[in-house]
Design brief:
By secondary structure, the protein is mainly alpha-helical. Helices cover about 60% and strands about 0% of the residues. Helix 2 packs across helix 3. It is elongated.
Length: about 100
């Protein structure tokens, strides 16, 4: 029984070594991919860009949200990874904080 446990322990150690080696290889590949990706924008840069777009388009309400998003997505393509929508509440603009109609 003791011999069997040692064999299982050795198998587990070998399996763990294989997994760690494989994981290290994947981490190196990920680093290589990130070297070719555009640098991601920070939250302050995303907010500033959104404010500039809202001002540039003279957006005044929720009806203009589609126009703003179209320009925002083209300007920040690949640099914000779909985070743009999350920053609208931080922009403090009537476009974002317009009252909802028909909601009690």
């Amino acid at each position: 029984m003791v011999v069997r446990e040692d064999r299982n322990t050795d198998d587990s150690k070998q399996g763990l070594r294989r997994v760690l080696k494989h994981t290290h290889k994947e981490e190196e590949e990920i680093k290589l991919y990130y070297a070719y990706l555009p640098e991601q924008l920070g939250s302050s840069e995303i907010e500033a860009t959104l404010k500039d777009i809202i001002t540039e388009l003279s957006a005044t309400g929720v009806k203009d949200l589609g126009k703003v998003m179209k320009v925002a997505m083209s300007k920040m393509a690949g640099k914000a990874q779909g985070k743009v929508e999350a920053y609208f509440p931080a922009v403090h603009h009537p476009l974002v904080h317009a009252p909802k109609m028909g909601v009690a």
